[in-house]
Amino acid sequence: AFTFGDPVPVMDRREILDYIEAGSNGRWYEPPVSVDGLAKSFRRSTHHASALFFKRNVLASCFVPHPWLDRETFAALALDFLTFGNCYLERVRNRLGSTLRLRHSLAKYTRRGAEDLSQYFFVRGWQQEHEFEPGSIWHLREFDVNQEIYGVPEYLSSLQAAWLNESATLFR
Hints:
The protein is α+β, with helices and mostly antiparallel strands. The chain is 33% helix and 21% strand.
């Protein structure tokens, strides 16, 4: 015989994370939710990934391409927004300073500056950082009630069900 343990209330010790908001390392803010965890959870459940792909495909099918933004870039932007609650576009300028095109910056690695919120960094790993030109990044974020620096995906509360589904499948 085995037990699952005692029931744990929803508001027990977890609300302490609401006070952390988005931590700063001095140069940029870290997202309030693990982007690595969100990326791993993306394909955890077939229902989860297919719902996000469906939403992305609907948005991409309605998108009207622009000389600066093609359908492929928009589809990547939409999937980042749906998966991470954040998406970023970098303005690529020509030699005269005019906009040449808009390039997608991966939300998993893009961070917002700590000293100036209009400053952004691309941080792919330890000591692999790129500082974007000031004012060249456009950031769309899903609203979060606990902080105003990053967005969080709207499905965040349903991740427990996706993880539980994976555990139940592995248990069987």
